[in-house]
Amino acid sequence: MKVIKKKRGTIYFGDGCWDALNNTISILKPSRIFILADTNTTLHCVPVLLKLVSTSISIQHINLPAGEQFKTIDTCQKVWKQLSEQGADRNSLLINIGGGVVTDLGGFVACTFKRGIEFINIPTSLLAIVDAAVGGKNGVDLGHLKNQIGIIKDPLAVFVDSSFLETLPTNQMTSGYAEMLKHGLIASEVYWETLKPFKPDRPELIEDAIWESIEIKNDVVVADPTEKGLRKTLNYGHTLGHAIESYCLESNDIKTLLHGEAIAIGLILANYISSELTGFPKTKLSETTAHILRHFPKETFNKADIEQTIELLKFDKKNVDGVVNFVLLKNFGSHEIDKQVPNSLIYKAFEYYKNFKKII
């Protein structure tokens, strides 16, 4: 088992994580345990949890519908009500087992119910393992706008059993891969290269890279827990990526994208903008674009789509005094934060994405 030890939010990865979970529960001695899962993890993952958790404490289950569209205050109200009706008190423990929607929403629910109860994250998707469940960001969407309501607080601990990845469909594995690619871009070209053997049906090929991705994010979060500087780099590709994801959630004329699918596009756009404004090498722009498009479908955006996406940038959480701030790269592992980008260059970035010839 690999461990990142912290005062709060210790991460346990691999063989032995279930023993660590049982030990954590034994030390905490919660009055009751509540398991929060969606319809997918209730089917595939909760039975494993119930089999491996050893405790005499009462365990109750709260089930969510699966999907980003349910990451809302309305869903939180339903969970709060169930917790209340099932006798949860301030000494209760909430175990969030699932993907990013479950861990984001579950953490927010726990932080706000009775002014805060303990919670643990057991991420089961690649996206949640390398991103959502690590770092202490908890929250929900406001309508179609991503992550507008939330709080930063680490879970008591995070337990990662990578065998859960075997239950994921291809598109969910690939969605999480986008966040790993982001970590490669902001951390080092050496790490980027280790990601290339990725195959969505063979998660074991990149298990070491998954752990390194967790380490990369954790190092950034520890250095800048409240996102005043360095932590903004974790939003690389997300300024436009989140806007694209929000627009697709809102629009009836374009297909809804998974988070990682939108972020993959955002990475290409950010790399192009970086090549124009901060000197990201053109050769690396081409190489990274080609690699991303080997794994993600090419989407089509017309002028109206792009206009609406740009309009949504005003809701980005990095904005200050109405100014949209981007994270850009000078090279792998070398960044600049709080950069302003003219709309004309954003249009050119979409044009670059549209015209790039996909290499199989």
The main sheet orders its strands as 4-3-5-6
Got a strand count?
Answer: 11
Please outline the major beta sheet: 4 strands, parallel
Mean pLDDT: 96
Quaternary assembly:
single chain
Using the 3D structure, state the CATH architecture of the largest domain: Up-down Bundle
* CATH homology superfamily name of the largest domain: Dehydroquinate synthase-like - alpha domain
**Count of the separate structural domains:** 2
Element-by-element helix/strand order: EEHEHHEHEHEHEEEHHHHHHHEEH
Give the C-level CATH assignment of the largest domain.
Mainly Alpha
List keywords for this structure.
Rossmann fold; 11 strands; 4-stranded parallel β-sheet; alpha/beta; single chain; 360 residues
Task: Give an account of the 3D structure.
With 360 residues, this protein is of the alpha/beta class. Helices cover 47% and strands 17% of the residues. It contains 14 helices and 11 strands. The protein has a 4-stranded parallel β-sheet with strand order 4-3-5-6. A hairpin with a 2-residue loop joins strand 7 (137-142) and strand 8. Helix 6 runs parallel beside helix 7 (170-187) and helix 11 crosses helix 14. The two termini are 37 Å apart.
